[in-house]
Specification:
Rossmann fold, 5-stranded parallel β-sheet, coiled coil, Helicase, Ruva Protein, domain 3, 466 residues, binds adenosine-5'-triphosphate, alpha/beta, 4 domains
Length: 466
C-alpha cells in the first residue's frame, strides 16, 4: 500500500525527474515534478506537501549550490513544516554540512543508488509527519490553555426535570451525535455542554467554545476555519480556527440562531464535509469534532420564518436537550443557594448563612435570568452583608419581596432532602445535626428551630453523642 502524502521533486534535468518519479510513485501516493523552481511557491499553496527533493544548481554550469540554498530558505519561510532534501551532482562534505545548517533535513549525491534514495526519502517523510504532529499539538495546546482558564462551576440539580436532563446527557455523551441545547438565558446550557464533553470519550481532547452571538460578521470564517498570514490586512500571523482547535474533541457553538444566511451555508458545508479551509489557503484540513450548539431561540419557528435553514437544523439537532427555566424547578433553589453561598463565602472570606425566611423569598421569586441571576444575587448579597446573614431583600426586586407567600416553599424544602431511609431515629439525628450546624452550635436556637425544649434537646444531644 502506498504511503499517504506528497513529494515534490525539483530538478532542471527531465531525465532525473522521470527516473525519480518512476521510482517513488511505487511507494508514495503523490509525486509531483517540476523543472522550474519558481513553481514551488504556487504548488505549496495549492496542496499539502510533506517532502521536497531539491536540486542545488539550476543554471547550466552552475556548481556553487547557491541556488539550492536560495530556494531552501524560501521554502522554509513559506512552510516550516515541509522537509527538504537537497541533491547535487557535485557533492562534497562542506556543502552537505552547510545545507543541513541552513535547514535541510538531508543531502544526497547524484548519481544515487535507488535503495539509498528510498531510504533518505522514507526518513524525510517520517520527519515531516512528526513535524506536522508537533505543529498540530502545539496549536491545540494554545487553544486548550485558553479554554481551561475559564472558571467552571459544578452542574447541579436535584429536581425531576434536571434528573431527566442528566439522564439524557449521560446517554447522548457516549455517542458522537450532534447535540442542540435549548433553554432561556442562564439556564446552564454552557455548563451542560461541558458536562457532555466530560462524560464523552472525547474528554481527553479539547473542548472549544465560541459565542457566535458576539462574532463580527467579517471574522466568522477566520474564527471558525482559521487564516493564513497575509490573507487580509489584520492577518499578521497564521491563525488556527476553532474547528481545527477542537479536532478530536468537542466544538461548542453558542447562540447560533442569528447567523446570516451565507454563514449558515458555510457552516453547513463544513459540518457535512468534515473539512475546513483556512482563509487565504487553498488546502483543506480534515476535522473530527462533535458539535454541540446552543440557542435560547425557537429554531423550528425560525425555520418557518425562513430565518434558519432547515437542513442546518437537522444537521445540528440529532439530540435536543431542553434546559428548564429555574421557575419550573424551584426544588433546585435551596441546593443552588447553598452551593453559591459556599462558593462566594470562600471567595470573599466570609462565613455568612441565609435565614429560612430569605430562602423562602428566593424560592418565590420567578428568576427571569435563571441560575445566572441567582448566582449573581447571592454574590451581591455576600458582598453587601454587614451581619452574619445575607440580606436577600437587598438584592432582588422590591416587588418580589411583597408577593403573597406560600410558607417556605414546601416543594423546595421536601425535595431538598433525598430520603435514603425512612428510619425516624436516623432522620431525627440528621435534623438535630443540621439545626445545630445552621445555628452554628447555638443549642437554644437549634432547639427552638426544632420545636424542642432545651431539656429535650440536651437529651437528644446525649443520645446521639453530639
Ligand atoms: N445547573 C447549574 N448548576 C450550577 N450553576 C449553574 C447551573 N446552571 C447555570 N448555572 C450558573 O449560571 C451561569 C450561567 O450558566 P450558562 O452560561 O451555562 O447558561 P446559558 O444557558 O449558557 O446562558 P446563555 O444562554 O446566556 O449563554 C453559570 O456560570 C453558572 O454560574
Amino acid at each position: 500500500m502506498k504511503q499517504e502524502g506528497a513529494i515534490l521533486v525539483v530538478d532542471d534535468n527531465p531525465d532525473i525527474l522521470i527516473a525519480v518519479k518512476l521510482l517513488l510513485k511505487q511507494y508514495y501516493q503523490t509525486v509531483i515534478t517540476t523543472d522550474n523552481p519558481f513553481d514551488i511557491e504556487k504548488l505549496l499553496k495549492e496542496q499539502q506537501i510533506e517532502v521536497i527533493l531539491l536540486d542545488m544548481n539550476f543554471n547550466h554550469d552552475a556548481i556553487s549550490g547557491q541556488e539550492g540554498f536560495y530556494w531552501l530558505k524560501k521554502i522554509i519561510t513559506q512552510d516550516p513544516a515541509v522537509v527538504v532534501v537537497l541533491m547535487t551532482a557535485y557533492s562534497d562534505i562542506t556543502l552537505a554540512v552547510e545545507a543541513i545548517k541552513a535547514g535541510a533535513a538531508d543531502f544526497i549525491a547524484k548519481p544515487w543508488k535507488n535503495e539509498q534514495l528510498q531510504g533518505v526519502v522514507a526518513a524525510a517523510f517520517s520527519h515531516a509527519k512528526d513535524k506536522q504532529r508537533v505543529n498540530k499539538l502545539t496549536r491545540q495546546a494554545q487553544g486548550l490553555n485558553q479554554a481551561l482558564s475559564n472558571q467552571k462551576f459544578e452542574f447541579l440539580g436535584q429536581s425531576p426535570a434536571m434528573q431527566t436532563v442528566f439522564d439524557t446527557i449521560e446517554k447522548a455523551a457516549q455517542t458522537d451525535a450532534n447535540i442542540l441545547l435549548t433553554g432561556e438565558s442562564g439556564t446552564g446550557k454552557e455548563l451542560a455542554a461541558h458536562a457532555i464533553h466530560m462524560a464523552s470519550n472525547r474528554s481527553a481532547h479539547p473542548f472549544i467554545g465560541l459565542d457566535m452571538g458576539s462574532l463580527a460578521e467579517s471574522l466568522f470564517e477566520s474564527e471558525l476555519f482559521g487564516h493564513k498570514k497575509g490573507a487580509f490586512t489584520d492577518a499578521k500571523e497564521d491563525r488556527v480556527g476553532h474547528f481545527e482547535l477542537a479536532h478530536g474533541g468537542t466544538l461548542f457553538l453558542d447562540e447560533l440562531a442569528n447567523l446570516p444566511a451565507q454563514q449558515q451555508a458555510t457552516l453547513l458545508a463544513a459540518l457535512q464535509n468534515r473539512q475546513v479551509t483556512p482563509v487565504g489557503s487553498a488546502k483543506t484540513i480534515d476535522v473530527d469534532i462533535r458539535l454541540i450548539s446552543a440557542t435560547n431561540e425557537n429554531l423550528p419557528q425560525a425555520v418557518l420564518d425562513n430565518r434558519f435553514r432547515q437542513d442546518l437544523l437537522y444537521r445540528i439537532n440529532t439530540v435536543e436537550i431542553r434546559l428548564p427555566p429555574l421557575r419550573e424547578r424551584i426544588e433546585d433553589i435551596p441546593l443552588l443557594t447553598e452551593y453559591y453561598l459556599d462558593y462566594f463565602n470562600q471567595k470573599y472570606k466570609r462565613a455568612l448563612s441565609i435565614t429560612p425566611g430569605d430562602l423562602e423569598l428566593l424560592c418565590r421569586y420567578s428568576w427571569p435570568g435563571n441560575v445566572r441571576e441567582l448566582a449573581h444575587s447571592i454574590e451581591r448579597a455576600v458582598i453587601l452583608s454587614d451581619s452574619e446573614y445575607v440580606d436577600i431583600r437587598a438584592v432582588i426586586p422590591a416587588d418580589a419581596c411583597e408577593l403573597p407567600g406560600r410558607q417556605i416553599s414546601e416543594a423546595a424544602a421536601e425535595n431538598n432532602h433525598s430520603y435514603d431511609t425512612f428510619d425516624l431515629e436516623i432522620l431525627e439525628q440528621r435534623a438535630v445535626r443540621a439545626a445545630l450546624k445552621f445555628h452554628q452550635g447555638n443549642v437554644t436556637q437549634a432547639a427552638k428551630a426544632l420545636g424542642l425544649t432545651r431539656g429535650a434537646m440536651y437529651r437528644r444531644l446525649e443520645r446521639y453523642d453530639l
